[in-house]
């Protein structure tokens, strides 16, 4: 226990702190409420709570053994009665609370250990009462201890009289406490927004992963499920919401105009899913047909019209999952609420989903189709959690990916159902797979499944590896096991573990059973296959070597790394995977086989009928999580096919080929000539995915070359291949456009305008100026092009253009439009405006809100002129920023954005120096992300040394080429 800070308040010392207690009471400002009969809760004597040290969030997180940081399982909670009264009053943002927890003792003990942090517990109110037929037996409490590092609250029973909790006996532990209504987005917090010119407050909770303990003392581990009976106090003008429906409202004694809202008891669930909101909002009831539940959307009154889309797709997605999982939604109601500020993303609280406004609301006039896609993605994601996560929960955070990764794949199936026009599933490879492969190709990546202990480590798990790699390997699994067995296996898993917890092996067992029933051929069991993908980091590159005489194809695998360090530390992992291979020579017949994990079968030889002038393509529709490399001749045959008739290869495989080839070259596994030659076919490519995959991969060349003399060549070449598409698509939307065509036009226009295409720039500036002269007209700049139009006009303009966008940003009532305008502000090329933005962003009185600051810094970091100013600013203000932003993970992203294009020795040195000097601040919760940043910069440096010249030489040749023809 020596590593654990401890502060003990004994009952006898409690009398000595009466003065402090009175001060506490006055601070909460509710003496009338307490003195008038003290119904519930009371805070007339609060023990001294240690101030939460800055350690857990930003200090050096001590490595504490799992056994110390996990709760002892001597008592288990089965019911909580939680009462909270949030005070939404300027200068007095507190929460008065009381909790009564019914426990069962499973092993004799003299103490109760549970979680609590930042809460002042009233020592005198702590009671432990034995339940049962016998007369109520109150156990004597000796002391309560706070252990600040582990965030434990230890209630010790009277040792002198040997008071103990007896095995198999039930008790009720109850206490009163005072907590904070914080201004972060964690725990129970206040959110401030302006409506009709009036500043308003609301209270919202966000518990995941480990903040329920900041709201009420509880057993805050996902496998300590219980039933929660919640009562929330509120003013007459406000509405309270919680996981379950309201069943009763009673007046609060002694507090005029205040009421308790009592909610129905929940089902058995984890603490991180408990939720409450107190707000003055409008409720919109959705039409649910003959479903067994109600479905409501809650928004601020001035945004009601923006909730129509969510109102339609919400119940539709929930009904889809009931059918897909073959299990009903078990609660009587579902609420989705849009939080106006200080809330990003969304949270799946059971029965009360919380969203940032920009991801739930959609205004057809000013929001783009992409904004609509975001709404679908988040709504389908959070609703999938109602089964995957809420009904069946991971046993511990190490298995976080089980809910986040699976859900990130399954949400695509629901999105296809609720809005097929978005073609969500089709976009999976570019939105998830290619994105996460970039991260997972670093030596400092991590396995999907990792041991975590400390809350900082738990927080660090919410990354692209858990979400996107988790989703990608789930998609791979669904493909090799088959959609039907996958679905029925999931249903079986949910049925067995409902209202309980599970580890990944439970899921593998359920799928194995189903695969056996359905007689699916697998080379080994699901667990053995999937363990290679979840327990090892990284992924393979599969190399296909054809023998053109014997027609044999030899296949090998090795770990794909963007850069191999000279690290001498031995890593005992054998980087081989059970890899499902699919291949085709015509996209009509698909062959399949497996690469085994064991060393002895490292090489697989396939014999199949294939002419030596025919290509073969592996990883059909990129359902496998791996890259593919070929011998030079097969690459050449693929290039020839692309140049003559690219549609003979599927759209997803065209995206795969471009992304694989460019990344293989980046990693030094393929000469740059091959992918660069492949890009020539793009002159005839009209589909979104191959362009998206190529431009994303080329953006690496763009960021490396941007400050080099060779950049002009790159610009000219990219414009050359983009121009035909720019000409045929045009600048303006057409009503006949599909969603992906709209996305493609935006991508093309963005690239053309940023690379200096004259017509593009003129059109963008022209429409921006027309908008400036008629600001209320929403038809001048189409929503889909608003970012690129504003960005281009600001990039080529000055203060007036910037000020206009800033004004529109401030005035807009639509959160997604605000986000679009915010990002375009960073396009300015004026150093002084950049400096002014940086200065403004940490000061909420300037018009940027606290939650905007990180976006401002991240987008400015992507601006070549802003990059160094931003790095300097970040270095100077780091300490301040760690205090302002509650989530270290947001800061990790800032750090990544600021440094990711660094590619000189000097920049590497500056970065390493900064990390070295700030070990205390950076190393704890950002250990991995800091290492990843350094890793990236090192690989940028070696890229410059190895490839820059070759690429420039190739571009020089290509730009003088009049026609692109495959060299046969
Ligand atoms: N469970 C998460 C919310 C969350 C994230 C809580 C991190 C605590 C820490 C939720 O289901 C989620 O994943 N939200 C995502 C959106 C999703 C579509 C990827 C988010 O908030 O970004
Ligand atoms: Zn999620």
Automatic annotation (TrEMBL):
**Free-text remark on how the cofactor is bound:** Binds 1 zinc ion per subunit.
Domain ERAP1-like C-terminal: residue ranges: 615-938
The EC class name is: hydrolase
What cofactors does this protein use? Answer: Zn(2+)
> Could you tell me the EC number(s) of this protein?
3.4.11.-
- The regions listed as transmembrane in this protein's record are 12-36
Could you list this entry's UniProt keywords, alphabetically sorted. Answer: Aminopeptidase, Hydrolase, Membrane, Metal-binding, Metalloprotease, Protease, Transmembrane, Transmembrane helix, Zinc
Q: How does it sit in the membrane?
A: Lipid-anchor; GPI-anchor
Entry similarity comment = Belongs to the peptidase M1 family.
Q: What is this protein called?
A: Aminopeptidase
Q: Which organism is it from?
A: Daphnia magna
Lineage, broadest ranks: Eukaryota, Metazoa, Ecdysozoa, Arthropoda, Crustacea
């Amino acid at each position: 226990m020596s590593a654990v800070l401890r502060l003990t308040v004994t009952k006898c010392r409690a009398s000595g702190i009466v003065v402090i207690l009175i001060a506490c009471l006055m601070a909460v400002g509710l003496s009338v409420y307490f003195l008038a009969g003290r119904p519930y809760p009371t805070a007339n004597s609060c023990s001294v709570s240690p101030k939460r040290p800055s350690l857990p969030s930003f200090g050096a997180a001590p490595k504490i053994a799992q056994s110390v940081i996990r709760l002892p399982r001597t008592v288990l909670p089965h019911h909580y009665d939680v009462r909270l009264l949030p005070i939404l009053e300027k200068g007095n943002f507190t929460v008065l609370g009381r909790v009564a927890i019914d426990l069962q003792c499973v092993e004799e003990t003299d103490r109760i250990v549970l979680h609590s942090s930042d809460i002042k517990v009233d020592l005198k109110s702590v009671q432990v009462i034995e339940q049962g037929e016998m007369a109520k037996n109150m156990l004597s409490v000796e002391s309560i201890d706070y252990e600040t590092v582990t965030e434990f609250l230890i209630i010790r029973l009277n040792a002198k009289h040997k008071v103990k909790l007896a095995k198999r006996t039930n008790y009720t532990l109850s206490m009163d406490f005072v907590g904070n209504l914080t201004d972060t987005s964690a725990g129970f917090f206040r959110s401030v927004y302006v409506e009709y010119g009036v500043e308003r407050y609301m209270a919202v909770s966000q518990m995941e992963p480990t903040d329920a303990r900041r709201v009420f003392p509880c057993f805050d581990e996902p496998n300590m499920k219980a039933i929660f009976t919640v009562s929330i106090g509120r003013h007459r003008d406000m509405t309270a919401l919680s996981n379950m429906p309201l069943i009763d409202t009673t007046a609060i004694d002694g507090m005029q105009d205040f009421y308790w809202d009592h909610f129905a008891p929940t089902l058995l669930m984890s603490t991180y899913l408990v939720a409450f909101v107190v707000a003055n909002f409008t409720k919109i009831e959705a039409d649910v047909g003959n479903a067994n539940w109600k479905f409501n959307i809650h928004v601020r009154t001035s945004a009601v019209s923006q909730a129509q889309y969510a109102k339609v797709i919400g119940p539709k997605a929930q009904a889809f999952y009931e059918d897909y999982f073959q299990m009903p939604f078990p609660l009587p109601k579902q609420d989705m609420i849009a939080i106006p500020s200080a809330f990003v993303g969304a949270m799946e609280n059971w029965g009360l989903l919380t969203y940032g406004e920009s991801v739930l609301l959609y205004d057809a006039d000013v929001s783009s189709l992409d904004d609509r896609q975001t709404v679908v993605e988040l709504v389908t994601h959070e609703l999938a959690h109602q089964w995957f996560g809420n009904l069946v929960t991971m046993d511990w955070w190490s298995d976080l990916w089980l809910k986040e990764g699976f859900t990130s794949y399954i949400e695509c199936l629901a999105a296809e159902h609720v809005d097929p026009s978005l073609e969500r599933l089709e976009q999976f490879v570019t939105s998830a797979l290619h994105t996460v492969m970039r991260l997972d190709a670093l030596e400092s990546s991590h396995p999907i499944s990792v041991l975590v202990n400390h809350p900082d480590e738990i927080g660090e798990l919410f990354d692209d590896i858990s979400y996107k790699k988790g989703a990608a390997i789930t998609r791979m699994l669904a493909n090799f096991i088959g959609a039907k067995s996958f679905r029925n296996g999931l249903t079986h898993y949910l049925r067995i573990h409902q209202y309980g917890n599970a580890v990944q092996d439970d899921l593998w067992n359920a799928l194995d059973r189903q695969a056996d029933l359905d007689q699916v051929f697998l080379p080994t069991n699901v667990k053995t296959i999937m363990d290679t993908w979840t327990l090892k980091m990284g992924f393979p590159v599969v190399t296909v070597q054809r023998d053109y005489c014997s027609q044999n194809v030899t296949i090998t695998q090795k770990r794909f790394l963007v850069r191999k360090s000279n690290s001498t530390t031995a890593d005992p992992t054998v980087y081989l995977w059970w890899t499902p291979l699919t291949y085709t020579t015509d996209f009509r017949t698909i062959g399949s086989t497996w690469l085994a994990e064991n060393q002895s079968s490292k090489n697989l030889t396939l014999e199949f009928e294939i002419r030596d002038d025919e290509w073969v393509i592996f990883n059909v529709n990129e359902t496998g999580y791996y890259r593919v490399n070929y011998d030079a001749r097969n690459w050449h045959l693929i290039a020839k096919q692309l140049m003559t008739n690219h549609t003979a290869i599927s759209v997803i495989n065209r995206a795969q080929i471009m992304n694989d080839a460019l990344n293989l070259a980046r990693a030094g596994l393929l000469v740059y000539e091959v992918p660069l030659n492949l890009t020539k076919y793009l002159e005839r490519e009209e589909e979104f995915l191959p362009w998206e995959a190529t431009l994303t991969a080329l953006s690496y060349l763009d960021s490396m070359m941007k400050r080099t003399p060779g950049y002009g060549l790159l610009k000219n070449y990219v414009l050359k291949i983009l121009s035909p598409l720019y000409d045929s698509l045009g600048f303006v939307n057409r009503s006949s456009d599909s969603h992906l065509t709209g996305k493609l036009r935006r991508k093309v226009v963005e690239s053309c305008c940023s690379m200096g295409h004259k017509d593009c720039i003129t059109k963008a500036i022209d429409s921006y100026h027309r908008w400036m002269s008629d600001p209320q007209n929403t038809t001048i700049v189409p929503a889909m092009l608003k970012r690129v139009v504003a960005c281009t006009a600001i990039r080529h303009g000055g203060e007036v253009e910037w000020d206009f966008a800033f004004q529109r940003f401030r005035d807009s009532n639509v959160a997604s439009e605000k986000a679009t305008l915010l990002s375009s502000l960073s396009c300015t090329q004026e150093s002084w405006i950049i400096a002014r933005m940086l200065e403004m962003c940490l000061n909420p009185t300037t018009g940027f809100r606290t939650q905007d600051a990180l976006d401002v810094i991240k987008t400015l970091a992507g601006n070549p002129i802003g990059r160094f100013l931003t790095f300097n600013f970040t270095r100077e203000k780091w300490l301040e920023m760690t205090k302002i932003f509650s989530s270290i993970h947001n800061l990790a992203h800032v750090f990544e954005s600021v440094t990711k294009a660094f590619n000189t020795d000097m920049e590497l040195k500056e970065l390493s120096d900064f990390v070295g000097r700030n070990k205390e601040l950076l190393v704890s919760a950002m250990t991995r992300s800091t290492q990843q940043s350094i890793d990236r910069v090192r690989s940028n440096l070696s890229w410059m040394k190895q490839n820059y010249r070759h690429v420039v030489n190739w571009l020089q040749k290509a730009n003088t080429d009049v026609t692109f023809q495959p060299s046969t």
